[in-house]
Design goal:
By secondary structure, the chain is an alpha/beta fold. It has two domains: about 10-195 and about 325-375, 3-Layer(aba) Sandwich (Rossmann fold), CATH 3.40.50; about 225-320, formyl-coa transferase, domain 3 (2-Layer Sandwich). About 40% of the residues lie in helices and about 15% in strands. The chain has 16 helices and eleven strands. The strands form three sheets. It has a six-stranded parallel β-sheet with strand order 3-2-1-4-5-6, with helices on both faces. Strands 7-8-9 form a three-stranded antiparallel β-sheet, covered by helices on one side. It has a two-stranded antiparallel ribbon with strand order 10-11. Strand 7 and strand 8 (about 235-240) form a beta hairpin. Helix 1 (about 15-25) packs across helix 7 and helix 7 (about 155-180) crosses helix 8 (about 190-195). The longest helix has 26 residues, at about 155-180. It is elongated and about 85 Å long. The two termini are about 30 Å apart. The relative contact order is 0.13.
Length: about 375
């Protein structure tokens, strides 16, 4: 039984960060009930890993009877999460005030890119847009070249999902003491900005240049913190920042101590020259040969793996970093708990799979449920 066993979460079906938040809460043991809108679930592909562990009911949110059924469910819940534009749930009659009128202790989690307020709040956007106004996108890339898109990890999931989950959990703790719920306004812009905290610290200490990318210690500017191609066309990652780790890299990697030494390690004027030299050195051996020399040392070295390779990597296998479910390998629940272990209850269920069971749990009779189905309020 996970640490959130006994909690009920209502998730209004959507895409991206909000569904991942629901997945994490379900992995932790919460009963997550996904409110679908009929037809196929809103997924970009056939297999949606984020729907694992969740129940699915189909409710017609534009039907008055459907809304009433949903409000009855909300009255029994601890959390509701949604990822619509600001004002959408209010128009549907299931906004925070509507829901907290029937459940004052409800934690209402809202996930958007721009936030609930501000001049951009009603604009469409995606991860790339949200992180572009935080300085994060500008900071990622090679010196003298255009910014590099970091997939949708920084805005959607790092700045979005994780802040929604932490906000919901904090609000649940507070509600346990006060008996009162509240709205959690999780915006990807806010989250991505917070992810930049270390860069801001370095900048305040005059150790980071906000105007340039690829010239700072942690953005690939430093020769000892970058990726390098190997003899076989693969890549390795080096992050030997601290003096003792840097010297391990030099000694175990057989690097020339006249060139690679502590006295000049952080001389930024020499970074490009040293990077060019190290680039050629790393091409002298294959990735596996470098792994044999450096992988199990404190050189802060690792191979750059494809997702396929990551499945079979010994460290990941020993820790069961991946699980297989519905015929697909996928990330195992995280983080790990010593006593109330997280687990995946089941795989993705078809849209509406649990409509009858959930409504029966609310006390509706078979006849009542059939009436709702006949009215088109639920499916």
């Amino acid at each position: 039984m996970g640490p959130l066993s006994g909690y009920r979460v209502i998730e209004l079906a959507g895409l991206g960060p909000c569904p991942m938040a629901g997945m994490i809460l379900a992995d932790m043991g919460a009963e997550v009930i996904c409110i679908d809108r009929g037809g196929n679930p809103p997924a970009l592909y056939g297999q949606d890993i984020s729907r694992r562990g969740k129940k699915s009911i189909v409710v017609n949110l534009k039907s008055e009877e459907g809304r009433k059924a949903l409000m009855k469910l909300i009255a029994s819940a601890d959390v509701l999460i949604e990822g619509f534009r600001p004002g959408v749930t209010e128009k549907l009659g299931i906004g925070p005030e509507d829901c907290q009128a029937v459940n004052p202790a409800l934690v209402y989690g809202r996930m958007t890119g721009w936030g609930q307020t501000g001049p951009l709040a009603q604009n469409a956007g995606h991860d790339i847009n949200y992180i572009s106004i935080t300085g994060a996108l500008h900071a990622i890339g090679v010196k003298g070249q255009k910014p590099v898109v970091p997939m949708n990890l920084v805005g959607d999931f790092g700045g979005g999902t994780m802040f929604l989950v932490s906000g919901v959990l904090a609000a649940l703790l507070e509600a346990k003491n006060s008996g009162k719920g509240q709205v959690v306004d999780a915006a990807m812009v806010d989250g991505a900005t917070n992810l930049m905290w270390m860069c801001h610290s370095f900048h305040a200490s005059k150790m980071w240049d906000f105007n340039e990318r690829g010239v700072n210690m942690l953005d690939g500017g430093a020769f000892y913190y970058d990726t390098y191609e190997t003899k076989d066309g693969k890549y390795v990652a080096i992050g030997a920042i601290e003096p003792q780790f840097f010297m391990t890299l030099v000694e175990k990697g057989g690097l020339d101590p006249e060139i690679f030494n502590l006295e000049t390690q952080n001389d930024m004027d020499q970074w490009e020259e040293k990077k060019a030299i190290l680039t050629e050195v790393m091409k002298e051996k294959t990735r596996d040969e470098w792994c044999a020399l450096l992988e199990h040392t404190d050189a802060c070295f690792s191979p750059v793996l494809s997702a396929y390779e990551a499945f079979d990597y010994p460290h990941n296998q020993e820790r069961d970093v991946y699980i297989e479910l519905d015929g697909y390998k996928q990330p195992a629940p995280a983080p790990r708990f010593s006593r109330t272990k997280s687990e995946v209850a089941h795989g993705q269920r078809p849209s509406g799979h649990d409509t009858r069971v959930v409504l029966e749990d609310l006390g509706l009779s078979s006849d009542d449920i059939q009436t709702l189905i006949d009215q088109g309020a639920v499916q």
